[in-house]
Design goal:
By secondary structure, the chain is an alpha/beta fold. It has helices at 12-19, 42-48, 64-69, 87-96, 112-124, 142-157, 169-175, 193-196, 199-206, and strands spanning 2-5, 31-32, 35-36, 49-52, 130-134, 161-165, 178-183, 186-192, 209-215, 218-224. Helix 6 (142-157) runs parallel beside helix 7.
Length: 225
């Protein structure tokens, strides 16, 4: 599980779009399982990796359940109802994101936080080997932000690769294995959390004073003028 951190405009979203195969790199290449993304058929790539953009939206009043089912598009039939074989995966994703009570609600009626949870459920429902998420905790209250972090951590523990761009550094510190720090389109540091998340690096990254504290509940980051 890798967290991409940096200030606004640093290039985090661009990096994730390149990693997802949605934007070609200016140089070099991106590989998935040792195979160049550019050589993977689009439908196969859609099945193997899921990408959740920062400002995902729903324009039609389809149910939350249908929104989540869209994450299975690469394997769903083109027409008709959702086959019964996919119901367990949809139910599991709804439950994981605390959406069971909202499954029949039109997605256009959801709050911002509820929609963010629905989009995360859509991203994980197909159990992709690579999950790329841009700001998965944006708009979520503290409980659901922690739930999102735990759910992404669980996917990594199950053998999947998770890459997330995130501003919530405490979530990154708590759940990520590795950190990629970017600023102004360049890489400042990359490596294990304990090596990269230092007060000096964070101060350089964000131009503020930083203090990292530790107690019985873990480590926390505090910014100061």
């Amino acid at each position: 599980m890798t967290a991409v951190i940096g200030p606004n405009g640093a290039g985090k979203s661009t990096m994730l779009e390149v990693a997802a195969g949605l934007r070609a790199p200016d140089q070099g290449s991106v590989e998935l399982g040792g195979q160049a993304l550019s050589s993977i058929a689009r439908k196969d790539l859609a099945r193997r990796r899921a990408y959740l953009p920062q400002r995902a939206a729903v324009e039609w009043p389809i149910s939350v359940e249908r929104v989540v089912a869209l994450g299975l598009t690469p394997v769903l039939p083109a027409f008709g109802d959702i086959p019964a074989v996919f119901r367990p995966a949809i139910n599991e994703a709804l439950a994981a994101c605390d959406l069971l009570s909202l499954r029949d609600r039109p997605a256009t009626d959801l709050s911002g936080g509820e929609l963010a949870r629905a989009m995360l459920a859509r991203a994980i429902v197909g159990d992709p080997e690579l999950l790329i998420v841009d700001e998965p905790t944006a708009g979520l209250d503290p409980r659901h932000a922690l739930d999102a972090g735990r759910r992404l951590r669980a996917r990594a523990d199950a053998g999947r690769t998770v890459v997330m761009a995130i501003h919530d550094l405490d979530i990154a510190l708590r759940y990520a294995d590795d950190i990629v720090a970017v600023r102004e389109g360049r890489l400042l540091a990359a490596g294990p959390v304990a090596e990269v998340m230092t007060e000096a690096l964070l101060a350089e990254l964000y131009d503020v004073g930083v203090r990292i504290t530790a107690d019985a509940e873990g480590m926390a980051i505090r910014f100061r003028d």
